[in-house]
Amino acid sequence: MLWILLAVSETSRWTAPAEFGSFADGRLLESSGLAPSYEFKDNYYTHNDSGDKPRFFRFDKKGVNAVFNLKGANAFDWEDMASVRRNGRSWLYFGDFGDNSKVRETVVIYRLKEPNGGSGAIEDFDTYTFKYQDGPHNCEAMFVDPGTGHIYLVTKEKSKADVFVLDSPKTSGVNVARKLGEIRPNTGMGEFGRLVTAASTDPQGKHVIIRTYSGALEYNVTGKYQDWWQSKPQAVTMPLDPQGEAICYSNDGKRLLTSTEGTPCNIHFLTLAPKKQ
User: Fold this and answer.
1) What angle do CA 14, 19, 21 make, to 5 degrees?
2) From CA 236, how far away is CA 249, in angstroms rounded?
3) What gap in Å lies between CA 267 and CA 144, rounded to an integer?
4) CA-angle at 76, arms to 75 and 77, nearest 5°
5) Could you tell me the end-to-end alpha-carbon distance of the chain, in angstroms, rounded to an integer?
6) Where are the alpha helices (DSSP H) in the chain?
7) Closest Cα to residue 258, out of 233, 240, 274?
8) Which partner for 260 in 1, 37, 157, 241 could form a disulfide, CB atoms 3.0-4.6 Å apart?
9) Region of residue 95 (left: phi > 0; alpha: psi -120 to 50; beta: else)
10) Cα–Cα dist 274/169, whole Å
11) 24: which residues sit within 8 A by CB, 6+ positions away?
12) pTM of this prediction?
């Protein structure tokens, strides 16, 4: 097995990647987002990239065990998802905000209660329509602050990545994503290490991780949550995937999962490294 080895400091929180599962499922061809389940132990969710229906999949180590459809939703270009547990409820978010040509004046995020049963159609969900304050962007990375419910977005650019936030979005009208700043990720391998393809935050809101095609960078939240991007990131070793486009923390924050587009869908995990004595 080949790994992309990055310059990880001696205080790295994570072990090397190991295989979680490899799923040859004809319905799951381009895993583009990952999020943990808060209702089912050791289960996770994923969805396909553009070209699929507005649907998502729940899976465990054995493979896909449930498929859900958002009835009446669109699926122009779903690029990332997130899950969060707040006020005793578990929520799933799906970002239909892919825009390679940067021509979409408004884009969409869907929010719904995490299903507590098996496969089926879902009719009850929120739709957040929004635009960026400075015009269209291509975006493939989203996460939700577990403390406030604010939605964070990290754009996909060749030289930098802009950081935006949707403060308590509403289901009516067009929300405006506010720009917080920019980061310049670099995980090696040229342009592949600068293009942000996914993001996630741990359930405690203490860490944020962003994924590129060649690696990942983890940020510590040391002050205000919205300032996470200003901290110095730490490189995290990723598997050498053909097109790594998804990453998430587990629902206890003790694991990282990452997946790649293509079939079979290869999923790897990292665990917290033992603390040095």
Assistant:
1) 135
2) 13
3) 22
4) 95
5) 30
6) none
7) 240
8) 241
9) beta
10) 39
11) 263, 264, 265
12) 0.95
Residue 230 DSSP SS3: helix
Using CA atoms, how far residue 184 sits from 55, 110, 194, in Å, is 33, 28, 7
Q: Tell me how far apart the alpha carbons of residues 99 and 76 are, in angstroms, rounded to a whole number.
A: 9
- Percent of the chain with pLDDT strictly greater than 90: 93
Structure tokens at 41: 């132990």
**Mean pLDDT of all residues in 134-154:** 98
Q: What's the CATH fold of domain 3-271?
A: Neuraminidase (2.120.10)
16 φ/ψ angles, rounded to the nearest 5 degrees: -70, 155
Decide if pLDDT at 14 tops 70.
yes
Alpha helices in 28-108 (DSSP H): none
List beta partners, residue 164: 153, 179
Assess contact for 54 and 105: CB atoms under 8 A. Answer: no
Query: How far from 39 is each of 4, 33, 68, 91, CA to CA, in Å?
Result: 33, 18, 15, 10
Q: Return the structure tokens found at 178.
A: 């506010």
Between CA 70 and CA 261 the distance in angstroms is: 22
CB 267 within 8 A of CB 255: no
3-state secondary structure of 225: helix
